[in-house]
Design a protein that fits this description.
Elements (H helix, E strand, L loop, with lengths): L1 H6 L6 H30 L6 H12 L3 H15 L4 H26 L4 H24 L2
Helix pairs in contact: 2-3, 2-4, 4-5, 5-6
């Protein structure tokens, strides 16, 4: 989302915005997978089983969702004729929604108390809205 906030300040093309946002999502997902697999490999004296690698990659794939959805939204917005700046603002709000949904999904799978799960979701929403508010204040 911070990438979107930055792009909203720049004179950028839709194609550049889509590649930047979707690419950032993919890079973040690969970074998460690398960190998870590296820590698992360091904790084990044996080769990681393929099932564990697939599981880690599947779990980390959700971190790409906000960037990929924002990229798809930017493409759709361009097709219907929205300006890049308007599309980026819409993608920011879609990012907040996506982060909220990802937080809800992750919270449901955790073994934490209901209070902690709700707090995690609320923190994600506050972070997303905070980024948008900061972007608006800087303009």
């Amino acid at each position: 989302m911070s990438v979107l906030a930055y792009l909203g300040d720049e004179a950028t093309s839709t194609a550049k915005a889509v590649l930047t946002v979707a690419g950032t999502g993919i890079v973040v997902a690969f970074g998460e997978a690398y960190a998870g697999l590296l820590s698992a490999a360091l904790a084990s004296a044996q080769k990681l089983p393929a099932a564990e690698i697939r599981e880690e990659l599947g779990v980390c794939a959700t971190t790409a969702a906000p960037g990929l959805l924002a990229g798809a939204f930017l493409l759709l917005a361009d097709l219907i004729g929205l300006t890049t700046r308007t599309a980026i603002n819409g993608a920011l709000w879609l990012g907040v929604l996506t982060l909220t949904l990802c937080s809800v999904v992750e919270a449901r799978g955790s073994r934490r108390s209901l209070l902690v799960r709700w707090g995690s979701v609320a923190a994600s929403v506050v972070l997303g809205v905070g980024i948008i508010v900061l972007k608006a204040q800087l303009h």
